[in-house]
Amino acid sequence: MPIIRVLPVFLLLVVGAGLAIGYITAPGPWYAALAKPAFNPPNWVFAPVWTILYVLIAVAGARTWQRARHGMAMRLWWLQLVLNFAWSPAFFVLHQVGLALLIILLLAATITAFIAASWRSDRASALMFLPYAAWVFFAALLNGAILSLN
Q1: Residue 2, pLDDT above cutoff 90
Q2: Domain that residue 41 falls in
Q3: Helix (H), strand (E), coil (C) string for the chain
């Protein structure tokens, strides 16, 4: 199946669901009241960064689906998506900062494993996950700082 037929499905799934979860779990008064580290970005940064990352995640997913839909890289891709979508409800809805930190650390490990699993067979997909990995490692540091400050 050509990527042009698969990609819209992945874009709708990842970007659509990601933005919907972001909207439903938008930071509220609880988050505003938390002590945050000096390196905490302004709130307006998160939506554009995640939108770009979600597009990259979707493209890498579509490419991986085409190449080996039952392979290890695809299984890791699905796992990272579940962990990604679980973080916001854990943090912003349940207010479980420690649980959110565990989820994001598992997410970072899964992203790293996806990059390693894809590196030889689909370098482009692996490279698309590098900015995602960088952002998630930063977000994990931020999550850990918020946990320690509160």
Answers
A1: no
A2: 3-149
A3: CCHHHHHHHHHHHHHHHHHHHHHHCCCCHHHHHCCCCCCCCCHHHHHHHHHHHHHHHHHHHHHHHHHHCCCHHHHHHHHHHHHHHHHHHHHHHCCCHHHHHHHHHHHHHHHHHHHHHHCCCCHHHHHHHHHHHHHHHHHHHHHHHHHHHC
